[in-house]
């Protein structure tokens, strides 16, 4: 299944949502506008062409029509059809990518209280294909109900439900059987989590996981954006941040708790990662919420 890659920030904005019943002789008109038009078929059949590419939709199918592209129904439904649809406003897709090629475990940079803009984050929406509508339809029903009684006390709830809907659509696009490289990456990250307080030993990782280290590293880099050692450092430094803010332990004690034999190495790594020393980080977080 292909997916549309979209930036998360700013969040997509819902425009409208509908639930329709089409008779066998009904056919969609031609249209081109600057919003996303999403179709989900509950039962029946539906025909739609986008920029000369025809799609035939059946029960359980989704099709996301993109802004700026012309779409029209190339033929009538041919049978009674029930569908849900919604329009939303957002930037055009960054790219179209097969679901199996997406790094679903990719680790985004964390925002801090010094940032003035959100860090770059991505989301994925299935372009076209068969999905499980079970987790989707109850949300669409709630959205449709709220949309029909739009008021101050329901508008924010409607947008919140829309965000949940996008999250479930993304989950529906994830391959149920992970590709081999992602399975290996998951295996490696689990190993690193379990051994994060121990000295990093590539040969021990090879022995326990029964794969060459360079292959494990390639899989991790592909799916998380980090090497095994970088991921181990990521886990320990993040835990170190929590200890600096939420405990009274000194830097030496925190370093030992995280498995660093040398506190100076912990300080140097912390500074490389965060741009500040552990003590400066602790001081900067005092009184912050």
Automatic annotation (TrEMBL):
- Record keyword DNA-binding present: yes
Q: Which UniProt keywords apply?
A: DNA-binding, Transcription, Transcription regulation
* InterPro entries recorded: AraC-bd (IPR003313), Homeodomain-like_sf (IPR009057), HTH-like (IPR037923), HTH_AraC (IPR018060), HTH_AraC-typ_CS (IPR018062), Tscrpt_reg_AraC-type_HTH (IPR020449)
Q: Which residues form the HTH araC/xylS-type domain?
A: 186-284
The record, for Pfam families, names:
AraC_binding, HTH_18
PROSITE patterns per UniProt: HTH_ARAC_FAMILY_1 (PS00041), HTH_ARAC_FAMILY_2 (PS01124)
One of the record's GO molecular function terms: DNA-binding transcription factor activity
Q: Which domain of life is it from?
A: Bacteria
The answer to whether the entry has keyword Chaperone is no
Protein name, UniProt field: HTH araC/xylS-type domain-containing protein
Q: Which organism is it from?
A: Paenibacillus swuensis
Starting at the broadest rank, the lineage of the source organism is: Bacteria, Bacillati, Bacillota, Bacilli, Bacillales
